[in-house]
Amino acid sequence: MKNLTARARIIAYFSAATLLLICLCVFAYVQLQRIQDQASIARSESVPGLVLASQLQAVSISTYSSVEQLILERDSVKRQQIKTYLGEKTAERLNLLKQYESVIRSDRQRELLRTTEAALIPYMTLRKQVEQLSGDPETRAEAAALLQNQLQTLYDSLQGAIQSEVDFNRVGAGEAGRKIQEAIGTAEAVLLACLLLGTVALVAAGYQLVQAINRPLARIVSAMNLVRGGDYSQKIVLMQGGEFSVLANGLKSYHIYPGLNSVVVALKIG
Predict the structure, then answer these.
(1) DSSP string for 189-207
(2) Which of 35, 42, 129, 171 is least surrounded by CB atoms within 10 angstroms?
(3) Choices 3.10.105.10, 1.10.3720.10, 1.20.120.1730, 2.60.40.10: CATH for 6-200
(4) CB atoms within 10 A of CB 256
């Protein structure tokens, strides 16, 4: 680096700065891609899955409570309203299951969905029996016993399966958010470090460039002052290879004639 010309130094320093800028741009692009990927997972999979699984859970709770209310209700009009509500919620649950299946991507989510569907089949079969038995006053007590002894167990299994889906999607959404924050933190740290490193490098490069120009220029100016005063005896010492060496060699040409300084002195006296 010491033998480089000022022009070569300028090119080298600006090339290094450009390379650093390119590296920062590539790094920022990679980090933004990571953030985009995690945001896409959260937007299209984890968050919708969490919402749908939570809705399934709410539907199961409300329908089970409605079945309990149906067994206790004596008024025919209210019983019909409860049955209508149960029919609507059953259709809503089937629709939620279809929507959930369309948004899930991982094998684990599909496995949990299959578990929920497997738990739903016996629950719905027994629930229909309970609803039918509750319609006859003579079999209403049997319906209550069936709900207490069997349907409750199937309901707990169904809720457990749905809760597993809720938990998995909640963890997935949280993990996506954590990775986004991690990518942002890494980008901030690296960009700050590169900014500090780049600042130090630019200051050092600027100092070296100024010295590469200032030192030979100062020597040439000093020699020019001597020449202007008529003193041709001083030698100019510069490192070879720089732009200033051309000018220095021109000044050195005065030393080809050893008696030139004596002639000048004699002319001044005469």
Answers:
(1) HHHHHHHHHHHHHHHHHHH
(2) 171
(3) 1.20.120.1730
(4) 7
Token code pair at residue 197? 């490193």
Give 18's Cβ-side CA count (13 Å radius): 6
Sequence ranges of the domains in the chain: 6-200, 214-269
Separation of alpha carbons 166 and 63, rounded Å: 18
Record the pTM. 0.58
Neighbours of 155 (CB within 10 A): 20
Q: Encoding tokens for residue 221? A: 């100016």
How far is 119 from 124, CA to CA, in rounded Å?
9
For the chain, give the number of residues: 270
pLDDT tens for the chain, 270 residues long, are 555 666 676 777 777 777 777 877 777 777 777 766 666 555 555 677 788 888 999 999 999 999 999 998 888 899 999 999 999 999 999 999 999 888 888 888 889 999 999 999 999 999 999 999 998 888 989 999 999 999 999 999 999 999 999 888 888 777 767 777 777 777 777 777 777 877 777 777 777 777 777 777 777 677 667 666 665 555 655 555 555 566 566 555 555 444 444 544 444 444
